[in-house]
Amino acid sequence: MKRICLVVMMALAPAAALARQDAALSAKGESVYAAQKCQICHSIAGKGNQKGPLDGVGAKLSADEIRMWIVNAPEMTAKTKAARKPAMKAYAIPKDELAALVAYLQGFTKK
Predict the structure, then answer these.
(1) Which domain CATH number covers 33?
(2) What distances in angstroms separate CA 23 from CA 59, 71, 76, 94, 103, one per listed residue?
(3) How many distinct structural domains can be found in the chain?
(4) Which of 16, 53, 60, 81 is most buried, taking the most CB atoms under 10 A from its CB?
(5) What does pTM read for this prediction?
(6) Is the model more confident about 15 or about 52?
């Protein structure tokens, strides 16, 4: 019985470590969202500009699509025929901050 418990615990340990890493990355992404003042144009859970809700964005867009909206918004606007005014501009943020912001936004899978 002890051997089975040990095996189960060893199997779950990497998953727990990965969950902690994901949580830390998402927390950093939340900080990037605030620092970049994304709430001026977007809202999450009713906080920010209601014209650009991001609730559920993780269920609608892939990580690559979210990344492209951040770094090449004009291309994504043309590709999706988005009509929101003013149009989103492209942002140049450090790679680690971009990854964290994308991870944070990917976490919003429900409206």
Answers:
(1) 1.10.760.10
(2) 18, 23, 28, 19, 9
(3) 1
(4) 53
(5) 0.79
(6) 52
